[in-house]
Amino acid sequence: PLPLTQPVIVSIAPGSGLSGVSKKLFAAGVIAHAESFKYYAKWRQLDRHIKAGEYQFSGALNSVEVLAQLVTGKVLEYQFTVPEGLTYKDFIDLLVQHPAMLDKSVPETSDWMTLLHSRWSHPEGLLFPSTYRFARHNEPIDIIRQAYMQQQEILQQAWAQRAPDLPYKTPYEALIMASIIEKETGQASERNTIAGVFVRRLQKGMKLQTDPTVIYGMGEAFDGNIRRKDLTQDTPYNTYVHKGLPPTPIALPGKAAIEAALHPAGGLSLFFVAKGDGSHVFAQTYPEHQANVRKYQLKQ
User: Alpha carbon of 286 to those of 229, 242, 263, 290: distances in Å?
Assistant: First the structure.
């Protein structure tokens, strides 16, 4: 075996012949003898099974191990992470901006949704926020497909095990609620409690009155502050104006938020206000809620 003092990366182009591959490996110091490697690959009848891609070699490798890596296509992989609560646009921007994603072309939303047989017309919330691994030859649609399928699987499994008597007609409505919970929750321990508040408000015909939906509806007009006039702006996403859920999710919810939407905590609270430390204080009545607002937001 030829010991490598540090990892070596070798790119094998599509259509590369055995001679070219052998010379490239020898030049990179991965193998000691190009001709011996060629002879061994032909003897094993694997010379036509070498897969293109970007490979990383390290340690002391012999020809058997090097060839096995090329034949199995064990290419170098990169990580791409999308945190919960980002939007579909954030997902796509992070994906195409990743330095290892050479193909920057993303299909039109309607095209990839048709390709994946999506029954919905809006992409928000449909991709699972997680860490994905990809090789340089992968395209953005490969990651989009993986994220879409994973979100569908998680949603369908959670829907099948949902609590009884929830106010959602479809899994998609649960996904919308999950996205709101994702944006409203600073502490994981509060997810189910916040879900319970929103579920009870829906059941009582109360408006959700949740700021993240207003912000989403404002789009690029949002400058970091919500003003009183924004709460009266008639957008489909303004839950201070419209009863019920907004028309689509407002972010990419993770698994915990989806499960919280489908397993809300019991109780009587109908209001909550942020305490400023990422947590919330809950109230059953509006006067109690007003007192909490004065205490925690108006600092009175």
Answer: 22, 19, 25, 6
Cross-strand partners of 274: 280
Three-state secondary structure call for residue 208? coil
Domains of the chain: 2-72 (3.30.1490.480), 78-158 (no CATH), 165-296 (no CATH)
Distance CA 89, CA 57 (A): 36
The answer to whether 249 and 148 are in contact (CB under 8 A) is no
The secondary structure element, H or E, covering residue 34 is: helix 34-43
SS3 track for 232-289? HCCCCCCCCCCCCCCCCCCCCCCHHHHHHHHCCCCCCCCEEEECCCCCEEEECCHHHH
Element (H, E) at 63: helix 63-72
Look at residues 206, 217, 211, 223 and name the one whose alpha carbon lies nearest to residue 247.
217
Phi-psi category of 220—alpha, beta or left, where left has phi over 0 and alpha has psi -120 to 50? alpha
Nearest one of 126, 91, 129 to 110, comparing CA atoms = 126
pTM: 0.85
What is the SS3 assignment for 121?
coil
Closest CA to 86 of 212, 235, 208, 187: 212
| pLDDT tens digits, one per residue of 182-238 | 999 888 999 999 999 999 999 999 999 999 999 999 988 888 888 888 898 899 999
Instruction: Return the exposure string of 236-259: e unless at least 16 CB atoms fall within 10 Å of the residue's CB, then b.
Output: ebbbbbbeebbebbbbbbbbbbbb
